[in-house]
Write a structure and sequence with these properties.
single chain; mainly alpha; two-stranded antiparallel ribbon; rod-shaped; GTD-binding domain-containing protein
């Protein structure tokens, strides 16, 4: 897949259209060097290549280049760019077209993100309202239980007072009857 530093083969289509690769040569565009990876080394005037540097660069078979070009073509066609328009347009036109497509996709992604957040906010708002309603209902039930408990405690207190009064009355009667019998 190209140089281990920059994977030139993946972007070979882009470099061809931008004029960065001369016919017959593929140049490594990484920071390491601008030496050809394979092909004729004399196509580029003004650049002196030493055989030792050429041996250091990994060679890439032509088969990989074809596969990678088809991958990049597939990528471009998935972006909506036909092969005929790629061949007929100039580099500047092609770059402008790609920038427009990317800007459109970014705008669409931002719009989708905003819609997602709006929908999420609606869902969260609905859930917050439901939580508040449930809390209100629970508080009403708690109040109902408190009122029932108070009523029961009042009834219990009345029963307790009545029972104590009856016991005290019975105790008086019993003490009176024992005193009367003595």
């Amino acid at each position: 897949m190209g140089c281990c530093l920059c994977s030139v083969a993946w972007f070979s289509y882009w470099f061809d259209n931008l004029g960065l690769i001369t016919e017959g040569n593929t140049y490594c565009r990484c920071a390491a060097s601008s030496l050809p990876l394979w092909g004729n080394t004399d196509n580029e005037p003004g650049i002196k290549h030493t055989p030792s540097k050429l041996l250091e660069m990994p060679a890439i078979p032509d088969v990989e280049i074809i596969e990678e070009k088809s991958s990049s073509s597939t990528l471009l066609s998935s972006m909506g760019i036909s092969s005929s328009s790629r061949k007929s347009s100039s580099s500047c036109e092609h770059i402008s077209e790609l920038e427009h497509i990317i800007a459109t996709q970014e705008a669409d992604a931002e719009k989708a993100s905003e819609m997602f957040h709006e929908e999420l906010n609606e869902i969260l708002f609905t859930q917050i309202v439901e939580i508040k309603e449930l809390k209100k209902k629970q508080l009403e039930e708690i109040e109902h239980f408190k009122m029932d408990l108070q009523k029961k405690s009042i009834v219990f207190e009345k029963r307790q007072i009545h029972t104590e009064a009856m016991l005290s009355h019975l105790l008086r009667k019993s003490t009176q009857s024992t005193q009367d019998s003595v």
